[in-house]
Amino acid sequence: MNAKTMFLMFPTYLLVLGAFGVLRSPRLVSAAEEQALIATIKLSSGDMGSTEERGRIVALEHQLSEAIKHSAAGEFDGDEYGGGVCTIYMYGPSAERLFRVTLPILKEFHAPAGSYVIKRYGKPGTKQDRIALSGD
User: Fold this and answer.
1) Alpha carbons within 13 A on the beta-carbon side of 19
2) Considering only CA atoms, which of 92, 93, 96, 85 is closest in space to residue 118?
3) How many C-beta atoms lie closer than 10 Å to residue 112's C-beta?
4) pTM
5) What is the CATH number of the domain that holds 76?
6) Which of 13, 15, 43, 96 pairs with 113 at a CA distance of 20 to 30 A?
7) Which of 78, 76, 56 is nearest to 67 (CA)?
8) For residue 108, what are the domain limits?
9) Which pLDDT score, from 0 to 100, does residue 25 have?
């Protein structure tokens, strides 16, 4: 088989691997067992925050993502802006572990008053704890 034939067959090979689940990223836990850490950062400037606030939050998210990745505590999922807050979503097998890994970073961020995290111990509607991120 020559290089050109191999090049042309590569997409087919990828489809076959995908069909058998070889290319899927492994899930840490099933969706039913997955826990969450949800950080809500209060914004001081309008519904979406100022450019400076959003920049600080992007830097925070990068630090959170790296810490979660390096500790294998779960996954950083992303954020959502609106209503004067930024909500940051992180998931894994243990909300407590996610909290322990991310708390030093969240404290160093010095979140504005009214900011908090939710440790959710299962799917939406299950037990959860709310912890203030500022001294309010």
Assistant:
1) 6
2) 96
3) 15
4) 0.74
5) 3.30.70.1230
6) 96
7) 76
8) 28-132
9) 42
